[in-house]
Amino acid sequence: MSDPSRHHYIPAFYLRQWATNGFLCEMRKIRGKIVVHSKSPDGTGWKKDLYKVEGVAPEFTQHFERVFMHMVDSGAAKAMRSFIGGNIDVPVTDRDAWIRFLLSLLFRNPEAVAEITGQVLTLYRESVQRLRENYDELRPP
Question: How far apart are CA 25 and CA 53, in angstroms?
């Protein structure tokens, strides 16, 4: 299986509940004009390689999307099916999965990912610089 490059910040499982005949209405502002498209839930709410990690071994570049986000979304999809099905006795694991999903929505959008990435890079560069400046004092005998 190849690594996914479409990283959904609004997961398709979540969007499907609003689809009519399998499609959603997507509105975008392009060159100052609002353009409306009909899209499937899989075809919207994503950005190419949004969670791709650069500078690591190739087998780990998509690890966050492939492992972590998959875990978050699959657990939330299961919980959502229980909620929509009217199940009032939802297991704690499903409720936890739903909360994890809701919290992920705060941080998984392109703007938040860019901000977090910038902050992490700044911290990394500052830490490396401090280590270089203080190496002689910090290194063990």
Answer: 31
- Separation of alpha carbons 127 and 133, rounded Å: 10
95: nearest Cα among 83, 86, 108: 83
CA 93 vs CA 4, 79, 96, 117: distances in Å: 27, 9, 5, 30
Segment 5-19, tens digit of pLDDT: 999 999 999 999 999
DSSP label of 86: T
Q: Residue 7: how many CB atoms within 10 A of its CB?
A: 21
pTM score of the predicted model: 0.80
Which H or E element spans position 77?
helix 70-84
CA pair distance 34, 38, nearest whole angstrom: 13
